[in-house]
């Protein structure tokens, strides 16, 4: 059977380089990774799915826990014949990457966590995510997108980047975004998972990120035994789009290291 998720799959199927799986954040889609797909698919296989409820993937109303997202990804990778890979996730995608690490970490050869954090949701945070889910269902995505645009990317970001990010947010189905918000509210504590990671890890954060500040990245770096923290200047929550050359440089160096140890 074909996989549940829509996805981009580019690059050579047979290569000595480890495939790269890219997991987008909320409320975006796989085009969030366009600069990375363009940069790395000439040398390795790059897979960028739309998570359940986002982009062109089907919507599941209600609550979609991170375990469901991880199951979707395992099914997709099995369908594509990808046994081992590097997982890279940003924000919510980073937390789903940690869920995958917990569930099938024996397949992961490297872990990239960008602008994310591992701690569970606080009671206040749970209430906030549930309230936001209700709001998106009632009002749609545009008002939210207008409000958060200049936190997702820095106020000084390129106008084309702002337009891309705003377009992704407004195109996201409210039902899909709400379902993942409810699932995200109930996510577990991933800090014990990180302490058990035995593969190399790259932690990336925008210097001006106010959602997941540099201190969060430093905490992740302290939790993962073999990790490097890279701070991208001139970027907020989406450094892969705001400063793609800097982000790609850090990712390239990391991927080459993983290739050498795989």
Automatic annotation (TrEMBL):
Residues 20-249 form the AB hydrolase-1 domain. One of its GO terms (molecular function) is hydrolase activity. InterPro entries: AB_hydrolase_1, AB_hydrolase_fold, AB_hydrolase_sf. It comes from the Bacteria. Pfam families: Abhydrolase_6 (PF12697). Keywords: Hydrolase. The keyword Hydrolase applies. The keyword Hydrolase applies. This is Alpha/beta hydrolase. It comes from Streptomyces malaysiense.
């Amino acid at each position: 059977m074909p996989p549940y998720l829509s996805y981009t799959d580019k690059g050579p199927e047979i290569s000595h380089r480890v495939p790269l799986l890219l997991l987008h954040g909320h409320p975006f889609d796989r085009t969030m990774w366009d600069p990375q797909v363009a940069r790395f698919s000439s040398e390795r296989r790059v897979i960028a799915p739309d998570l359940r409820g986002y982009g062109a993937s089907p919507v599941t109303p209600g609550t979609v826990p991170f375990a469901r997202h991880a199951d979707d990804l395992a099914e997709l990778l099995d369908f594509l014949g990808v046994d081992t890979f590097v997982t890279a996730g940003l924000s919510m995608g980073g937390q789903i990457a940690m869920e995958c690490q917990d569930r099938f970490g024996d397949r992961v050869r490297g872990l990239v966590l960008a602008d994310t954090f591992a701690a569970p949701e606080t009671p206040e945070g749970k209430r906030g995510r549930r309230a936001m889910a209700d709001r998106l269902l009632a009002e749609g995505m545009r008002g939210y997108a207008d409000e958060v645009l200049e936190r997702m990317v820095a106020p000084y970001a390129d106008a084309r980047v702002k337009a891309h990010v705003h377009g992704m947010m407004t195109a996201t189905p409210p039902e899909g975004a709400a379902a993942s918000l409810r699932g995200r509210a109930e996510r577990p504590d991933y800090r014990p998972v990180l302490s058990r990671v035995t593969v190399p890890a790259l932690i990336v954060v925008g210097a001006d990120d106010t959602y997941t500040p540099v201190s969060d990245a430093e905490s992740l770096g302290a939790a993962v035994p073999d990790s490097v923290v890279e701070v991208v200047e001139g970027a907020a929550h989406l450094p892969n789009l705001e400063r793609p050359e800097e982000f790609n440089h850090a990712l390239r160096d990391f991927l080459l290291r993983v290739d050498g140890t795989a």
